[in-house]
Amino acid sequence: MPVCLCFQHQLSYRLSRADNRRIINVNTHSAKGNKNKGEALRADPILSNAKSDLYGIWVFTLFWNAMSWPILAAAAETLIDQFQQGDWKLLLALLFPLIGLVGLAIAIKRLMAWRRFGETPLFLNPFPGSIGGHVAGTICLPGSIPKDIRYDISLVCVYTYETRDSDNKHRSAERMIWQHSQAAHLRRGMSRGRDSMNLLFRFDVPEGLPRSESKSGNYHHWRIHVYAEMEGVDLDRSFDIPVHPTSELTTLGLKQNVRQKSNQYLEQLTSIMRVEVGTDLLHMVFPQGRRKLLGAVTIGAGILLLVFGFLMLKLGSQEQSEFVLTFTGLICLLVSAPVLLFGLYMPCNALDVKIAKDSITVRRAVLGIGLYRKKVAMSQLKQVVLEEGVRSQVNGRYTVTYCVVAIGQNGEKLVLAEGLKGKPLAEEALHFIRANGNLVV
Questions:
Q1: Rounded to the nearest 10 degrees, what angle do helices 50-74 and 95-117 cross at?
Q2: What is the pLDDT along the chain (441 residues), one digit of tens a residue?
Q3: Are strands 23-25 and 40-42 parallel, antiparallel or unpaired?
């Protein structure tokens, strides 16, 4: 190979700045018989929306705080007098500077992320990404990033469409069409005379999926998302990329290492459950302490609903004609109870699964107190399948959680594994349970 791939990417990046974002032809491999030899690669990189988001959040934060804090300072004496007289309505004005503080915290976090990671240019190979072939490429990061952590890269096809609400206003919504995730390959490189660390990836995209369409009311588009948890600020970037049905293959030379990927997913599985494998018994325990963050957020939402409900009831009792306030307070109190209970349930529940030679036993407990116990004989087992659970989207990053479910002849369901983020991890869990539990269904 006459030229290092990473050097080519950086050379292309510099040429794009000097030559007004041109398209040039680069021969990435000299191997004979390579059908992609001499293919057209895009010289200028695809950049994420991190820079525009950074500008947007700072403009909003500065404007909001410049408006809300002077008004609050001018009305401080009036608010204190009204509060001393028992009028709580004006305390709602405190929400405006509170929003400003939250916005400032987010803006500072975005600035720290920008200073740490920079532009993170993405180079596709082939360009555009290929349906029926490969969506592959390189994301260039600073050389100072940690080398001993996992960098997750997701490829997602999204359908964006317009809806109308009760006021006949147009709103945009998204629906995920296809998604796949993997761990990136790390390679050292050079960027602007400095050491860099490049994330390489390759997705095999099946035929029949929709191609990228121009932005309109209803359209399909593709997105690459990279995420890694690390000390300080996490890496979290999204890239909108073009993908078309060209059936082209990448020249990056990445090979699917099935054993390595399997080991990575097994390590993830053992991080969320305890496993004992015997001759005639597979024992899996999903302990307490899972989903702590989600539980804390849910409890916080329940507390806010509870406080807001009491505030509305107090205001409604002071205003005899304000039935709406009293009714709103009652609804908030009624909703806050199940929200608080669910928030406590998520980190405090444990799942105990035993797959023996003749039966499957599942026990659910909360804080050590048994909630239910289910058992099904192997002769009554119909199939063991994956079941899609919660879909979530945070900052353009889609997450799909799966469960492994055993289905009996009468339709009863037993959860064998849960909280599996991403289909590759879920499929590995299903294979592990079938193989070690001697299940053929």
A1: 150
A2: 333 333 334 333 333 333 333 333 333 333 333 333 333 445 578 888 888 888 999 999 999 988 888 877 777 777 777 666 666 566 666 778 888 898 899 899 889 888 888 888 888 988 888 999 999 888 888 878 888 787 888 888 888 888 876 667 777 777 878 888 777 888 887 666 667 788 888 888 898 899 998 888 889 999 998 888 788 888 888 899 999 999 888 888 776 544 455 556 666 777 778 888 777 788 888 888 888 888 888 898 889 888 888 887 777 776 655 677 778 888 888 898 899 998 888 888 899 999 888 888 999 998 888 888 998 888 788 888 888 887 776 655 667 888 889 888 888 888 898 888 877 788 888 888 877 776 655
A3: antiparallel
Query: How far is the C-alpha of 230 from the C-alpha of 149, rounded, in Å?
Result: 8
**3-state DSSP: the chain helix, strand, coil percent, rounded to 5?**
35, 35, 30
Report which secondary-structure segment, H or E, holds 327: helix 323-348
What is the amino acid identity at position 288?
A: Q
Stated pTM of the model: 0.58
Q: What angle do CA 299, 302, 304 make, to 5 degrees?
A: 110
If DSSP codes are grouped into helix, strand and coil, which group holds residue 388?
A: strand
DSSP code of residue 211: P
| Strand duo 381-394 + 274-277: pairing | unpaired
Per DSSP, the residues of 133-167 read SEEEEEEEEETTS-SSS--EEEEEEEEEEEEE-TT
